[in-house]
Design brief:
Layout lengths: L16 H27 L3 E7 L10 E9 L8 E7 L5 E7 L6 E6 L11 E6 L4 H17 L6 H10 L1 H4 L5 E3 L30 E2 L5 E2 L36 E3 L7 H17 L1 H9 L19 H7 L2 H19 L2 E3 L8 E5 L2 E3 L6 E3 L16 H13 L2 H11 L1 H20 E3 L6 E3 L6 E3 L6 E3 L13 H4 L26 H6 L1
Parallel strand pairs: 3-7, 6-10
Antiparallel strand pairs: 1-2, 2-5, 3-4, 5-6, 8-9, 11-12, 12-13, 13-14, 15-16, 17-18
Helix pairs in contact: 9-11, 10-11
């Protein structure tokens, strides 16, 4: 660390330069901490903080540098394609376009100098798998311009938003990524490149990795994003080709993170396929299909209307689940057509034409009703499925008069009245009765204490907690201080009930 010593021969004057420097560095350190905290909060999993030492004394705590790495994913335009070229057996150059929705992120690796943001900008490198060094150099220059415009203020958020929202426009991308433009150099061995590979000169003079301060370093260990971290960040090691042409002026902070033997087209397609799986959510689709939700398999994110097509569903879910979804979707589509419905028999499901409410399966010859989908019943009213009866009854009881007439024409008034009485009875039992803990018979309590006797199986039980009581000492349940129903034998009884009715011979047992 640099110490500034000022010798002043004038005893009448004092120089506060050194305290001011320390105060400024302290403020810079606080702003750096705040910015790192904000980046971690905003970008969460896309941000990784790193901490290490700059060149010099590795044990000096004041020589410690801070920074991080941001994986910046871009929002691509709709119908974005990758253009690749290959040569067939006849020597004809053919073009191939591949639609993608996701591209690998741009990685921004940065470290803070001691005097950031008051005097110096962050040291940084930019790496990407699908941009060449010329394009990455343009982005580096734009980041420098943004620092100049905001000098003295924290700038990382501004940088990230530019790379995320404006980098495609800065590089004049519209709707196509041409892989031919990604190749920065030709292979030094003279081997032709026909598969869309990003290659570089493998000579010793030009294969050194670039560290975060912009200096050449013979250490070729890079982080998972391809950015040299000088041991500051753990990650998979890879060989990074950083070539420098005498005729081209590339920024040393621009790193094309691609090896000479990597098929960039396959890499980008595999990445897009993996990201689509993560966006739609395999578990979400499996749950929705299992629950019978065959339509609108959408992205689970809020305010996202993206729907998966059949090919994506087939790629995401197991084969048996996809077949089930495909069959249910076909049946739903046929049912929506009105005059064509699948055969009601589960093992058949062959499309059948409905004529005057009657359908006959061409495959198994089963004759059925096109309304209730039961066997053909002639002029008799349709029968309701148990799963549909509750919904139909709610409409019949609470619906408009037109809805009631429509249901009576379809199912018959007498049949609906019987179902209505049964429906109301079941609702009353659900609201006012409980099941016996032994025989499960429905029991309604009219009055009296909470010690109940089942008239079917003669078991004694508590009305409050529904536990079976000891036949010899049933009231001990209400006398036990450890019982949840302690002292609650008469809980819930009306105030006007006569608690001390002489005819209640059970009261004497309770008082003993």
């Amino acid at each position: 660390m640099l110490f500034i010593i000022i010798i002043n021969t004038d005893k009448k004057a004092t120089c506060p330069v050194f305290p001011e420097i320390l105060r400024s560095m302290s403020l810079d350190s606080e702003e750096q901490d705040d910015e790192l905290l904000a980046l971690a909060s905003i970008y969460e999993e896309s941000f990784t903080a790193v901490q290490g030492h700059e060149e010099g004394d590795q044990t000096d705590p004041y020589n410690e540098s801070r920074g991080g790495e941001l994986a910046i994913s871009l929002d691509l335009p709709q119908e974005f394609t990758i253009l690749s070229k290959h040569t067939d057996e006849n020597g004809t150059v053919l073009e191939q376009r591949t639609s993608v929705e996701h591209l690998p992120p741009i990685y921004l690796h940065f470290t803070y100098p001691p005097t950031y943001p008051s005097q110096q900008p962050p040291n940084f490198t930019i790496s990407c798998k699908w941009l060449n060094r010329s394009q990455l150099t343009q982005l580096c220059q734009q980041l420098d311009t943004l620092w100049t415009d905001n000098e003295g203020s924290v700038v990382m958020f501004t940088w990230v938003q530019f790379l995320k929202d404006e980098s495609l426009a800065q590089l004049r991308f519209t709707d196509t990524l041409d892989l031919e433009n990604i190749k920065p150099l030709r292979l030094s061995s003279g081997t032709s490149n026909t598969s869309g590979l990003v290659v570089g000169d493998m000579s010793d003079e030009s294969s050194g990795a670039i560290n975060h301060s912009g200096k050449n370093n013979c250490d070729t260990s890079v982080s998972s994003s391809g950015v040299s971290s000088s041991g500051e960040s753990a990650g998979a090691s890879s060989t990074l080709t950083l070539s420098r042409h005498n005729s081209l002026n590339y920024d040393s902070r621009a790193i094309q993170d691609i090896g000479p033997k990597i098929n960039i087209l396959r890499l980008l397609r595999d990445y897009d396929e993996e990201m689509r799986k993560q966006v739609f959510g395999v578990k979400t689709f499996e749950f929705q299909i299992s629950e019978g939700n065959i339509k609108l398999l959408r992205c689970p994110e809020d305010n996202c209307e993206s729907e998966a097509n059949p090919k994506q569903v087939q790629e995401l879910v197991p084969e048996d689940l996809y077949k089930r979804w495909d069959e249910m979707l076909l049946n739903s589509t046929l049912s929506a057509m009105g005059d064509i419905q699948p055969c009601p028999r589960i093992h058949c499901q062959y499309p059948a034409t409905i004529e005057e409410g009657q359908g006959q399966c061409p495959s198994c010859k089963f004759v059925f009703c096109g309304i209730c989908r039961f066997g053909w019943h002639g002029v008799d009213p349709c029968r309701l499925k148990h799963s549909e009866s509750k919904k139909i009854m709610e409409i019949y009881i609470n619906g408009e008069q037109e809805d009631k007439q429509r249901l009576e024409e379809q199912y018959g008034k007498k049949y609906l009245c019987l179902l209505r009485d049964e429906y109301l009875s079941m609702n009353y039992l659900e609201e006012n009765s409980k099941k016996c803990p032994k025989c499960m018979a429905k029991i309604e309590k009219i009055d009296g204490c909470n010690k109940m006797t089942c008239q079917r199986c003669s078991i004694l039980f508590c009305w409050l907690c529904m536990c079976i009581l000891n036949r010899c000492h049933p009231y001990s349940h209400y006398n036990d201080r450890n019982s949840p129903c302690f002292n609650q034998l008469f809980m819930g009884m009306a105030e006007e009930d006569d608690f001390w009715d002489d005819s209640d011979d059970e009261m004497g047992v309770f008082l003993d």
